[in-house]
Every structure is written in C-alpha cells, then in structure tokens.
Amino acid sequence: MAKVLLPGDPLPSTSAAASTSAVLHLGPGLHAAPTAVTALNGKGKSKEDVTAVKAGLLGFHDDGKAEKWWIESLARRYVPHPPEPVIGIIIARHAEGYRVDIGSSQAASLDALSFEASSFLRFEKYERPHPYPGFARRKTDDPFTTLIQVGTLVYAHLLSTPPFSEPEISCVDAATQKSAGFGELVGGFPIRGVELNRCRALLSPKNPILAKLGAQFPFEVAVGMNGRIWVKAADGEEENLVKLIQELRGRP
What we know:
By secondary structure, the chain is mostly beta strands. It has helices at residues 196-203, 209-214, 238-249, and strands at residues 4-5, 24-26, 30-32, 50-52, 56-62, 67-72, 85-94, 97-101, 108-111, 122-125, 143-146, 153-160, 168-170, 183-185, 189-191, 219-224, 228-233.
C-alpha cells in the first residue's frame, strides 16, 4: 500500500536499511541528517537519519545492489540527485571539460576525461599553423584533436551535488569505467518537458511501455530523470516515431 509522507516525517521503520552493509540511495524529497555524514558514502541509514522535505507518495525500488527511496510529487523543476541518469546539452567548453544544461537551477560540470577510452576526441590530421595569415591548411600526419561541440546531447549520470558549486556528471560507470550506455547521443530526436514521475516510471524494469513498443518496431531510447527523453528510429519510420513520442510523453 502506498504511503504518504509530509515534510518532517521520518522513513518508516520498514524502509530504512537495518544493516550497515546495505546501500541506501535517496532520491527527490528525502534528506539525510547532517549527523549521518558517514552514511552518505554508501553505508546504511537508520530511520532517524532520513526525513521527508516535501509531501508526496513514498517510492521504493531494490535492484539487489542498493535500496532506492524517493518522494513522488508533481514537480516542474528538476533537482539533481546522484546517481540519477540525465540528458544534457553541452553549452560551453573550457580547458578541463564542459558545462552542461541538465534542466536544473545550475548547469552541471562534465570532466573531459569522463568518457570511455577518450571517445570524446575525434582525431583529424592537419599541419601546424602556417606563419602567413590566410594560408589554407591541408591534411598531414600531425594529429589535431577536436572536442565535442557546443549543442551536442550527452547521456550521463550524476556523480555529486555539492551545496555551493555545480553538480558533477559523468559518462562512464564508476565501477567498470565503461560507458554502460552513457555518452554522446548522435542523431535522433530529443523530447523535453516530460513529467518527472513519468520518466521515473519508464526507467522501472516493471514498466511495460518500452517492451510493448519494442515488439512493434526497433528503436533506440535514452530516458533522463530530468524530464528529457531521446529517441532514434530507422529511416522511413517517421509515423512510428510520432507514435513513440506520444506514448513516451503520455499525452497526444
């Protein structure tokens, strides 16, 4: 039975991890007490450590590796919570990485090395700059690298959300250092303004929508918890793509 929590309510006794070896991930609407600093590093939390900060239904999912708890409510602005997946847009480049729009109050920071096997580099061969202005460059064996361009879509997951700085995201799995489905999104069509609760529902293994659509025609999809979805279908599947977008948005 669904349980409603109000701001200040603790997690029920059945919700908190009783063992210190269990990993507890907190989603939107839940807050860990400052006294539980060590618990934020992946240790279990008791029911006194976690309280609700907004009203809504208490959600739960256990994938065998961690227990995930969150508050389901009608929210229009995305609030970052690690390790949620997000779809971002590169809005700026700097010496050490990128600034990425993830739909939150602040842009996120993406390190230039947060890609599998330096896949963020596209190698092109050009000669060194000629001393005379206007001299046309021609291809040689000297490598010259070009980074991901501004405006590119990326699929990433949140690493941390420091209280007084930008959120940090990454395109590699921290455990395996592999892309694990994250990285640059090439082609396709982005969908914005999807309800946050619907995005969470689409990411649930028990949700039948993606499996039902996949049985009708092939497509690629990436779902971000920040209200954005990316889809890609084969050429000539425009009609099916429109149907797919309507199904994912949940409204015509």
